[in-house]
Amino acid sequence: MNGAVSALLSILDLERIEHNLYRGHSPQDGWQRVFGGQVIGQALVAASKTVDDGRQAHSLHAYFLRGGDPSVPIVYEVESIRDGRSFATRRVVAVQHGQPIFLMSASYHVDEQGLSHQIEMADVPPPESLATQRELLAASIDSLPPVVKVYFQRDRPIEVRPVEIDHYVSSTPLPPRQKVWIRVNGPLPDDPAIHRCALAYASDLTLLDTSLFAHGRRVFDPDLLLASLDHAMWFHRPFRADDWLLYDQDSPTVGGGRGFNRGLVFDRHGRLVASTAQEGVVRLNDGRD
């Protein structure tokens, strides 16, 4: 197992400090704020530790309230809202410096047999035929902010292989959609909960970026302020996050300083395994929170 995947599993391995109370840590990689996907993944780990009987998370709805401080631990308080015959509901509050920074509700369900259908996956090239995100950024790596440059040059736990590459090589406005293949860059344990938490972590990597394509902008533009406001996710079918997943994303609208984004996640066999939705701040940086 490579070091980046070991670091991801360490991030998702929360410390139990009391009943329904857990503590997580952040990687010390130079970022001023905690990565949103990390908080989603850790909160889902905390909630999952309080659910038994084989139930797995089928949905989560979360709000980012304040930027997380990577220099101190995050405490996750889990409240058991309901344990029914088929469903269980949990509420998680992430706390730092005595203040909530993140709020999430998650629902768990016993798998049942019944009706089934799904939309088809787009016809795209296989991931093995595509360049990695790091390779696509190589030509412009020296123009990126130093902390971003270091981030893309080090080993990362999630491998990203974009299907469309125009926004990496041009500032021309493009349709606000993108497809990327993603996977954890090494084997994970067989526990289905770990794979859900890992995908929750990865689901925040590229989603908000899609808001910028119609404007010919990039997430690294220094005059832009981007931040996730909320995040919703639904898990439809079992999957492995350490095998390739196609993340098909679009941004139906940007306006009023906010961008709205959606995503569908398919496994490489074309099964729809998860869906996402997110709204984020998309504004010119004027110093406001």
TrEMBL record:
Domain Acyl-CoA thioesterase 2 C-terminal, by residue range, is 150-281
Under catalytic activity, the entry for this protein gives: a fatty acyl-CoA + H2O = a fatty acid + CoA + H(+)
- Show the CDD domains listed in the entry: Thioesterase_II_repeat1, Thioesterase_II_repeat2
Pfam families named in the record: 4HBT_3 (PF13622), Acyl_CoA_thio (PF02551)
Gene Ontology BP, a term: acyl-CoA metabolic process
E.C. number(s) listed in UniProt = 3.1.2.20
Indicate the transmembrane segments per the record: none
Q: Which residues form the Acyl-CoA thioesterase-like N-terminal HotDog domain?
A: 30-108
Coiled-coil segments: none
What is the official name of this protein in its record? Acyl-CoA thioesterase 2
Q: What is its quaternary makeup?
A: Homotetramer.
| Taxonomic placement | Bacteria, Pseudomonadati, Pseudomonadota, Alphaproteobacteria, Hyphomicrobiales
**What GO molecular functions are on record for this protein?**
fatty acyl-CoA hydrolase activity
Q: Which UniProt key words apply to this protein?
A: Hydrolase, Lipid metabolism
Q: Belongs to which family?
A: Belongs to the C/M/P thioester hydrolase family.
Species per Swiss-Prot/TrEMBL record: Pseudoxanthobacter soli DSM 19599
Stored Gene3D superfamilies: Acyl-CoA thioesterase, double hotdog domain
